[in-house]
Amino acid sequence: MTPVARALLASSLLLAAHPSLAVTNTVAVNADTFIDSGNQNFGTETFLRLRPSGRNRALVRFDQAAINAAVSGGVLVSATLQLFIESGNESWATGREVDVHRMLQNWTELGVTFNCPIDSNTANGFADCAVQWDGGDFVAGPTDTMIQTNGLTGWISLDVTADVLAFLTGTNNFGWIVKKRDEGAGGVVAYTSREGTAGQAPRLVIESLPPTPTPTFTPTNTPTGTPTRTPTITQTPLPQCAPQPVAGCRQSLLEDKSLLLLKDKGGPSDKVIYKWLKGETTDKSDFGNPVTATTYTFCIYDETAGNAALVMQAVIPPGGVCGGRPCWKESRSGFRYKDSLLQRDGIGSIKLTAGVAGKANIKVKGQGSGLDMPVLPLAQNQKVIAQLKNGENECFEARFSSPARRNTDDLFKDKADPRITFPPTVTQTRTHTPTATPAGSAATVTPTGTPTNTPTLGAHTNTPTVTPTRTPTRTPTATHTSAPGLGT
After folding, report:
1. Which of 270, 305, 316, 377 has the highest CB neighbour number within 10 Å of its CB?
2. Which residues, at least 6 apart from 291, have a Cβ–Cβ distance to it below 8 Å?
3. Which residues pair with 154 in a beta bridge?
4. For the purposes of burial, counting CB atoms within 10 Å of the CB of 433, is it exposed (0-12), middle (13-18) or buried (19 or more)?
5. Quick one: what percent of the chain has pLDDT higher than 70?
6. DSSP type of residue 184
7. 12-16, 218-222, 330-334, range with greatest mean pLDDT
8. To the nearest 10°, the Cα dihedral for 259, 293, 80, 89?
9. Are residues 92 and 53 in contact, defined by beta-carbon separation less than 8 angstroms?
């Protein structure tokens, strides 16, 4: 296990043993309303209503700066959207599902209607917007679901941790829409809006772990050539895609094995597939433990004139429940992630398989409007770079050089380059120069040269190698002949 992995595991165990280390902050709602069939705006109402029939939906949003301040550079533990039941909680039979979905398009509290995200004239009963929507633009799969019943009172809670983590790592924050799963079924409720009773407005409760010092070891060389580790304290950042590709990732060992496919067919038909095959030696511990602690980030970079830019990312947090079952499961050789609801940035499955060189494999698949699909075709001048990295500072990379197998306005498909060849390890060779000795004497070997240690670039250990090469040479019997002017 890497030092970083040990530090993160220690943090999680410490949190479990001392829950008081977690910090809880509440973020106040900064926009809320509900929409009903038609072109009317309800942004000033004191309640958020779901009705027995018809498509009645509530919208809420929280300021991103306030969310960032609540986490304050730490590690997000949980985020919960809470709504207060004000009145009219009836006709729910034995209970029905109420879902929360992440919004994909901007809207305003005083401009949103069922037909328009921002209607320029809400008083005339027409859809005054250049681009209409049909009751909201949101991720198809719900982020979380609760069962609304007739006897339910007070606060209800919906787990939106995955969405908030996405907001913290660059996904646009347009808030959430709350709706009945079966909008034709009975059930009416009014939740308090921010214009309603004080203390009952929608709220976002965020639990986070403060930044934890993590030792990062810097190799230094001693006169004996033995590396020593000098700890340098740095802060463990939230996993996210860096603006440019990170260095030192594990590579696929064979060309034309790893695959990247991007299909932009519009919303639900969008697709991404990344296969990292025949990879470098990878131990199961290198994957961390996504069941409980390790976040994964999938990043795609596109080069233009050799300059790489981030064009797609997805954040998959640890743990979680997907379709009533744990999202992550551990296997003998690694871990599996499965989410048929595509709640985490459209990613539906991840398979992490450890193995020796040529046997390690990773597969990532995603689909739907929740994907952060880049604009196609990609520039690929000269490369497209795909990286899957985790909170253990491990990274698994494939590079795809131009020309691609396909690169059109709706499809990118390519096989990976050969493994990146890093500068070779510099191995110091001791050169032995024999000195002449009188006839009959034993040969004397005098080693010269000083060993120096040069680490291998791109490797995951920094172990200097000093390999002396000794080539004994027999010293011939010396026959001394008088040279002119030197005597005998």
Report:
1. 316
2. 318, 319, 326, 328, 329, 330, 335
3. 85
4. exposed
5. 75
6. T
7. 330-334
8. 90
9. no
Residue 9, SS3? Answer: helix
Distances (CA, A) of 310 to 73, 403, 415, 418: 22, 19, 20, 22
Nearest to 167 by CA among 116, 244, 237, 104: 104
Helix, strand, coil % (nearest 5) of the chain? 10, 40, 50
- R_g over Cα of the chain: 31
- The residue with greater pLDDT, 327 or 453, is 327
Instruction: Read off the tokens for 1.
Output: 């296990």
User: Does residue 388 contact residue 316 with C-beta atoms inside 8 Å?
Assistant: no
Cβ atoms of residues 158 and 73 within 8 Å: no
Res. 211: pLDDT tops 70: no
Sign of the four-CA dihedral 204, 205, 209, 210:
positive
Residue 203 CA to chain centroid, in angstroms?
26
Residue 453: what pLDDT?
46
Instruction: Please give the sequence-ordered ranges of beta strands (E in DSSP) within 222-332, or none if there are none.
Output: 227-235, 250-251, 259-263, 271-279, 296-304, 307-316, 321-322, 325-326, 328-330
Interatomic CA distance for residues 370 and 150, integer angstroms: 33
Instruction: Determine the Cα–Cα distance for residues 187 and 53; give it in Å rounded to an integer.
Output: 8
SS3 assignment, position 351? strand
pLDDT at 382 over 90: yes
Closest CA to 67 of 166, 157, 177, 198: 166
Measured distance CA(239)–CA(317) in Å, rounded: 9
Average pLDDT in the chain:
80
Residue 76 has a pLDDT of 87
**Structure confidence at residue 419 (pLDDT):** 62
Q: How far is CA 412 from CA 320, 379, 405, 432, in A?
A: 31, 11, 8, 57
Contacts of 284 (CB under 8 A, 6+ apart): 333, 334, 354
